[in-house]
Specification:
Shape: elongated
Order of helices and strands: HHHHH
CATH superfamily: Ferritin, core subunit, four-helix bundle
CATH topology: Ferritin
Length: about 160
């Protein structure tokens, strides 16, 4: 029975590390996306918004990496290839068209993906302290998702102070 318990504990540990590493990659893509968006945005208000979101996402990555280390795992240190390709695509799209709108569209997509990834992670069997940390990060991701979605939806509003 001791061997079975040890194997189950190791499997649980590996599963937890896998869940956290997926979120590290997702949040790294978010942080890099917001940083690229800040560098490309034309409106100062969007630059500040994107910079703040990039910093918040980088802090989430650091916390996730600390959690992986705390359980003896090896944290991922980067984003995904798909995220890199998407950012390059949006940079090109922004050169041709409206960079602010192109980045808002992309960050809306990225935040939708992040909120889904966090919701999925919260369904996993995780230690209580990790589950609590992910709940807080999920809340922040959903808040970002809603804000970016609303901002994107207002892009055609004639009196929009940010996208005007």
């Amino acid at each position: 029975m001791l061997i079975q318990d040890t194997v189950k504990s190791l499997n649980d540990l590996f599963d937890t590390v896998e869940v956290l590493n997926e979120l590290i990659q997702t949040s790294t893509d978010r942080s890099k996306g917001f940083a690229d968006a800040a560098g490309a945005a034309k409106k100062p208000e969007l630059v500040a918004l994107f910079q703040r979101h990039s910093t918040d996402c980088a802090a989430a990555v650091a916390e996730l990496q600390r959690l992986v280390n705390s359980i003896g795992g090896t944290p991922k240190s980067g984003g995904t290839l798909a995220g890199t390709v998407r950012r390059c695509s949006v940079k090109a799209k922004g050169i041709i068209g409206d960079a602010d709108i192109a980045w808002l569209e992309e960050m809306k997509r990225v935040e939708d993906r992040a909120a889904t990834a966090y919701a999925r992670a919260l369904t996993a069997a995780l230690p209580p302290q990790i589950h609590s940390a992910l709940q807080l990060q999920h809340y922040a991701a959903v808040r970002n998702q809603n804000f970016i979605r609303d901002l994107y939806s207002c892009r055609k509003a004639p009196n929009d102070a940010i996208l005007g």
